[in-house]
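Pilot study result, target chain (153 residues):
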Amino acid sequence: MPPERLSGEDAHLRALEALYASAPVNDLFESRLTLPEAGRSEIRFNVAPDTFHAAGAAHGTLYFKMLDDAAFYAANGLVSDRFLLTTAFNLHFTKPMREGEARAEGRWVSGKRRVFVAEARIVDCEGEECARGTGTFMRSHIALSGLDGYRAG
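Predicted structure:
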């Protein structure tokens, strides 16, 4: 359905997907965000050699970026008026990511007013978990409607 015909939650989720795609930092990371429902997210991304550290696997920068974004968008799916801010994020590396497709899956855990908790995990192209993280996010004073990339239907 075209975004201009959507309303309510669907319009908000599609607008968040557009916001993600508009962020300049995503020019550095080939990725695509999907929000199947409020409180859940998935980011499909490519682990390329230009993201590797000297030992030939993905640098922690890629892990953090994808985990934080997946958890953040899962939480911001529940908030239709304000942009959330990451206040803390804890991550655990469990397996080196090698070249190939991967996905970060985010899930809201708790909070519905000012502070939200969400978690995320990265699964590689072999279906194995490579990392897991938990973040806390709080409402900012930034209105989503005031952000150029946020295009609600």
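One observation from the pilot: The longest strand covers residues 129-143. A full batch analysis is planned for the follow-on phase.
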